[in-house]
UniProtKB/TrEMBL annotation:
Keywords: Oxidoreductase. Residues 36-503 form the Aldehyde dehydrogenase domain. GO terms for molecular function: oxidoreductase activity, acting on the aldehyde or oxo group of donors, NAD or NADP as acceptor. It comes from marine metagenome. The keyword Oxidoreductase applies. This is Aldehyde dehydrogenase domain-containing protein. Belongs to the aldehyde dehydrogenase family. The keyword Oxidoreductase applies. PANTHER family: ALDEHYDE DEHYDROGENASE-RELATED (PTHR11699).
Length: 508
């Protein structure tokens, strides 16, 4: 295989700022009731840079007792000072937090790169473009959350002598469990709507990437947000996560992660019937019609799959291309895959980083082996690279069949599965595009407005983009159909799971 760029990680080129070094070295504890406290177990979890495999920090391993304390703090805060703060002031506090993130943008971006491995440009884009805007977006909603008045006369009341109104009340204590693939943004995506609606939060970051959430905790502590409103318990899913999802005093779990764990969370919620929203996996189709503008569709398809090294639930990992343009599209995507500059995200010219962990690299490599065993054609990639760091080359399989496991299962790595389609009707193409247990995202590439909208309607996913992939904006609702999840995040709809409606009827 002819890689255009040679992989070269020269760790000597990496320089970490003194501020980041000093934060990483500090004693990372749990944020409970406005104070940093040690975990009751005294155990620590090491945190590694996935590009160098060097230990960056160690954080506390929270357990049942710590979750109990954090939930108690969140419960107390829910009915304490926080409940008396006006919606205007809640908005101000969210905006203040956004200001503080902007003021610490460089440090947060650097830490996100070190912790997750993403390229610097992506960390900067995600923090400025998503994190800050999400906080400001939900800040602006805080004053606009209200119920209705309903013109009925219940209980035989005379018309005009009764009124019914609804109030939107905070759902209560929210347990937020987040993954490692975009750690800071997922923390903000849970905290922003929760605080806008007046809820309180216990956040459990992923054990692999807790650093920016802890730094965010420091900003929250100094922001004026009352103590106990946001509590952060680092720890393992099996201990801290399970304690949170089973907790009888938690009213809602907001989860992003794997479908497998999502199902466990549903089971855990049965005890007190807590509400659950789930943003789970995806195996998203990218459908390219023969009239597509290939200048846009080719880079669009490459980015759709390889963004965040494919460790992205919205990744467009199944590429369906009309047979007339199949070869030029595959050639073009291959050229782009081979042109990524791979290495440590702190080197600004690198645009493709490592996978998050050795486990994830092994998992991805096992799917790459499986694809070859299943008879798919390996067009490029298929190998790990470097002696240090969990790097896997962007990989393309061609002539993938719909019944292959690589076409059905979420790989969560840089592996694109391409297949041509003929002149079938749109329903047949959609049937192939929908032939997975997931339904999160998808995209359609064509100049034909009718095909574009018909196909968008036929794709069974929470989000379909036309001539772009995975359009993300704080105002655009996002979430999955089928086994990609329950509920929506972002946008006005993203507030609903944090609210409960109370109807009050008055007879005069
Ligand atoms: P998980 O779903 O295991 O982890 C997501 C979060 O859930 C983490 O904070 C994790 O904790 C926590 N968790 C794990 N087990 C439990 C549990 N029993 N109860 C409560 N919380 C729990 O994802 P992985 O990190 O293991 O990744 C595995 C696969 O999941 C990926 O390969 C990918 O397919 C998918 N995934 C999807 C994501 C998405 O955005 N939709 C994001 C990440 C992964 P901890 O990590 O600390 O153990």
């Amino acid at each position: 295989m002819n890689q255009k760029k040679v992989f070269m990680t020269n760790n000597k080129q990496i320089s970490i700022s003194e501020e980041v070094k000093s934060f990483l070295k500090s004693d990372h504890q749990l944020l409970i009731d406005g104070k940093w406290v040690s975990s009751s177990s005294g155990e620590k979890i090491p945190v590694f840079d996935p590009a160098t495999e060097e230990q960056l920090a160690e954080v506390d391993s929270g357990n049942q007792a710590d979750i109990d304390a954090a939930v108690a703090a969140a419960r107390k805060a829910l009915t304490g000072e926080w409940s008396r703060i006006t919606s205007h002031d809640r908005a101000q506090l969210l905006n203040k937090l956004a200001d503080d993130i902007e003021a610490n943008f460089a440090v947060l971006s650097e830490m996100e790169v070190l912790d997750n491995g993403m390229p610097m440009a992506l960390a900067q884009y995600s923090i400025a473009g998503h994190g800050v805007t999400l906080l400001r977006y939900y800040a602006s909603w805080a004053t606009k959350i209200h119920g209705d008045t309903i013109p009925v006369s219940p209980g035989g009341a005379v018309n005009g002598e009764s009124i019914t109104y609804t109030r939107k009340e905070p759902i209560g204590v929210v347990g937020a469990i987040i993954p490692w693939n975009s750690p800071l943004i997922f923390a903000i995506l849970k905290i922003a709507p929760a605080l806008a609606t007046g809820c309180t939060v216990v956040l459990k970051p992923a054990e692999l990437t807790p650093i920016t959430a802890l730094y965010l905790g420091g900003l929250i502590q100094k922001s004026g947000i009352p103590k106990g409103v946001v509590n952060i318990v680092t720890g393992y899913g099996e201990t801290a996560g399970t304690a949170l999802t089973h907790h009888d005093d938690v009213d809602k779990i907001a989860f992003t992660g794997s479908t497998e764990v999502g199902k466990k969370i549903v089971e855990a919620s049965v005890g007190n019937l807590k509400k659950v929203t789930l943003e789970l996996g995806g195996k998203n189709p990218v459908v390219v019609f023969p009239d597509a503008d290939l200048e846009k569709a080719i880079p669009g398809a490459a980015r759709a799959c390889f963004f965040l090294q494919g460790q992205n639930c919205m990744a467009g990992t199944r590429l369906f291309v009309h047979q007339d343009i199949y070869q030029p599209v595959i050639d073009g995507v291959k050229e782009m895959a081979e042109a990524f500059t791979i290495g440590h995200g702190l080197i600004p010219t690198n645009d493709f980083g490592p996978l998050i962990s050795e486990t994830q690299r092994e998992r991805v490599m096992s799917y790459i082996q499986l694809g070859q065993d299943e008879g798919a054609e390996l067009v490029t990639g298929g190998e790990t690279i470097g002696d240090k760091g969990f790097f896997v080359k962007p990989t393309i399989f061609s002539n993938v069949k719909g019944d292959m496991k690589i076409a059905k299962e979420e790989i969560f790595g840089p592996v694109l599965c391409a297949q041509p389609f003929e002149n079938e009707d749109l329903e047949t193409i959609a049937h192939q595009a929908n032939d997975t247990s997931y339904g999160l995202s998808g995209s359609v590439w064509t100049q034909d407005i009718s095909i574009a909208h018909k196909m968008a309607m036929l794709i069974d996913a929470g989000q379909v983009s036309i001539n772009c992939h995975a359009a993300v904006d704080p105002a655009i609702p996002f979430g999955g159909n089928k086994q990609s999840g329950w509920g929506r995040e972002f946008g006005k709809e993203g507030l609903e799971p944090y609210l409960k409606t109370k109807a009050t009827s008055v007879v005069f």
